[in-house]
Structure formats: C-alpha cells, structure tokens
Inverse folding.
C-alpha cells in the first residue's frame, strides 16, 4: 500500500463510516449474528458495539495496519474475543464450514473482486450459515445512477478503490447465496449526497 492508501484513507474511513447516521444500519445488519463470526473489512471496529450477545468470537479480516491500530480501543473494551484473521477477503485463511455467521459493512465497495470474496465467505460458512451486510452501492434512481457513474472514477482514486455502482444483492446471489432479507434506503442527508449513500441492508443464507 502507498502512503495515501495505508495512512490517510483509513482515517477518512474512520470518520466517514463512524458517523452516527451509520449506527442504525450496523444495528440492523448485526441482528441475528451468532456463534463464531467472520467479519470482512473490519476497519477500525465500528461494529464492535453492535454485536449481539449470541456472538462468541470474531475473526476480523482487515488489510490495513493503520485501520487495525485505530480499532484498538474498541477491541479492548469488547466483551467478545476478536482476532485478526488475514488481510485479504478474497483468499481467506480458514477451513471450510468453520464459521456460523459472517458480517460485511461498507466493505464490498473496495474489494477488487467482491464475488470472489463472497465465494470465500460462503466456503468458510457452515451450511445454513448467514451473511449479514450493510453496504452502499448502485441506486435504482436513474438521475442518481448517472451521477454515480460520473463520480466513480474520482471516488476510486481518492478512496482507494471505492466503487459507487456495485449492485450488492446481485453480487451476493452470484456468489451462491440466497438473499432472504433486504431493505434499501438512502443515508440521511441532502440530495447531493445520494450518489454516495444508497444503502442495502440484508441477510443471505449459505445454501
């Protein structure tokens, strides 16, 4: 990683993804997590305070050392044991069917090959295990979509590969999951923020 990607972007993400407006989406995504959980794109640990009591441990996949350091205080106060488990969601260092649940929040936008990462998540989930997600992506509104396509090249350069136009439910289904719950909305804010804030919150089952 370069200086911008390793030292600046994680701090931008820490602030932008830590806004109070994202809290309800994290709460919603975490409902129903149970047992041993794989979290891809752990970042600075904004989900730690949202894990339900049924979670017994978390394996955190996080490529950025800076992001991991920023999560230290949250990890220290967590009632749930959290261990760093690899740097790349596209190639998980975990056995087949070794997790009960998986969690991804505002992470699939930056993974170079999100379908490969989701296939890896499916591999390490037990049969019937669930993937929980809250992700931003492609809006159904034509005017917003046009702006997303215009802004995406700049967004990718500034935010270390972050895409605005990924259809999250389609990617999840392509990876072999069955999407069982889905809600879509925009993050609160003025209309000019909509290209950056169309959110999918849902759950999918490993079939």
């Amino acid at each position: 990683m370069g200086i911008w990607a390793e030292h600046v972007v994680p701090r931008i993400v820490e602030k932008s993804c830590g806004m109070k407006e994202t809290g309800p989406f994290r709460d919603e995504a975490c409902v129903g997590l149970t047992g041993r959980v794989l979290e891809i794109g752990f970042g600075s640990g904004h989900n730690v305070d949202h894990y339900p009591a049924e979670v017994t441990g978390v394996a955190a996949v996080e490529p950025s050392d800076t992001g991991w350091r920023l999560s230290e205080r949250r990890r220290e106060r967590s009632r749930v044991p959290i261990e760093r488990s690899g740097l790349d969601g596209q190639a998980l260092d975990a056995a087949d069917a070794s997790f009960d649940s998986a969690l991804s929040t505002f992470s699939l936008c930056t993974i170079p090959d999100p379908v490969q990462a989701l296939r890896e998540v499916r591999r390490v989930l037990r049969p019937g295990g669930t993937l929980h997600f809250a992700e931003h992506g492609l809006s159904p509104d034509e005017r917003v979509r046009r702006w997303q396509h215009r802004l995406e090249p700049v967004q990718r350069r500034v935010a270390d590969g972050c895409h605005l136009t990924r259809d999250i439910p389609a990617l999840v289904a392509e990876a072999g999951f069955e999407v069982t719950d889905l809600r879509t909305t925009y993050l609160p804010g003025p209309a000019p923020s909509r290209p950056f804030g169309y959110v999918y919150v849902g759950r999918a089952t490993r079939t």
Remarks:
- The chain has a mean pLDDT of 94.
- The CA atoms of residues 139 and 145 lie 6 Å apart.
